[in-house]
Amino acid sequence: MESSGVIRISDRDFTRLTEYLRDHYGINLTKKRVLIEGRLNHYLVRNGYDSYTAYLDAVFADSTGAEFTNIINFLTTNYSFFMREWDHFEFYRNRILPELKSRVKDYDLRLWSAGCSTGEEAYTLAMVTNDFFGDEASRWDKRILATDISQKVLNFATAGIYGAEAVEPLPKTWKLTHFNKLPEGRLQAKDSLKQEVLFRPFNLMEKVFPFKKQFHVIFCRNVMIYFDAKTKVELVNRFYDVLAPGGYLIVGQSESLDRSATKLSYVMPSIYHKD
User: How far apart are CA 113 and CA 197, in angstroms?
Assistant: First the structure.
């Protein structure tokens, strides 16, 4: 530890940590040394560690995986908000849902919000879907699977409590229909909305996705920005395998896929289709 109180990470420990994060979680932080030290320093000091070597020894010795969960929570940026990249939801409402309504005969919609962060994306999907089906909504099984590797953000999403600034972009009708008022302008998702979303921990680096049925739509937005090119291609190919024919993959508007490395068809920027 230096006199300033900042614990510096050695080259060996930096490599040790970043290689593990890349190999097991797909997260590439090999150029984020300052970020790692900035976000972990206070945690190390508070818990009595005087070096990254001692800390990482404890992390790797923890068979429960709880310490690596802490690292993920500290080092990933869980930034989300309601109505984010709204064009995607308009495309979902105006093109995808009409297709599915006419094509899916068993009333079973399979939707996945992969890397759901604090839940805004999944809840927005649920509200758009309910609006689209209207009086027919109860006929459809349209529960959304929402996954993330961070238990911290999943706990936040499950509680469904959002500050006044977070909910400000929501239409007034949605606020009245789907949320209960709390003090200080906060809103909490009603049970009827929570029941539309199933929040679960999941690591996108699993080599085989354990889903029994294929999805009609996968939202994975602003998640692969952490991944290197090889990891990204492998993940997109796994998404392809779990998409139903005619299904859609939607990524962040700042992201794009290597079209030469995927069997998905390009629809428009950030939207891809399984023919």
Answer: 9
